[in-house]
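All the exercises in this workshop are built on plain-text protein records. A record pairs a protein's sequence with a compact description of its fold. Read left to right, the backbone structure tokens trace the chain's path through space. Once this layout is familiar, the rest of the handout is easier to follow. Here is such a record, shown just as it appears in the course material:
>
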Amino acid sequence: MTTQRHEFDPTPFLVEELPPRPRFSLRVRPGNRAALAAALSLELPTTVGHRASGPGPEVLCLGPDEWTVLVDEAAPLVAASRDAYVQIPHSLVEISDREITLRISGAQALTALTTGCPRDIEAMPVGQGARTLYDSATVTLWRDDRQDFRMDVWCSFLPHVRAILDQVLVELRSGL
């Protein structure tokens, strides 16, 4: 009989598919950003990677003129965009059917993500996000807490990304 104890976490991280939510890609010239933000009743962060969230829309700045916007209801945003377009040219494209959002959380969520991502995810502050790669798939990462992330994955890449995450889970459970 041995006195050694072999303890391991059977679930180093969890992957769950989140319910669909209306999602838009918004583009506007930097000089029109403030006027469009007011017209759409959105906060549009000016720094890439920063996000605005709270009650209502959630907005992530992906570039100097590009944002991902998540809302609870699409119709009010679409109507406001239509009303503002003549005065403030912009592009608002619904991309809800293009992507699936995965929540990746748990003690080794960061490890699971760094296995396939060239970006220094550990350096990403809580409350920020970024467009990056996971293996060969373009994804958007949202860091909600220290070990709690959301990953927006194009539907066509979802089986590939899930297979990699499943393999990472097997390896972490086995102690590799």
In short: The first strand starts at residue 14 and ends at 17. The two ends are 26 Å apart (CA to CA).
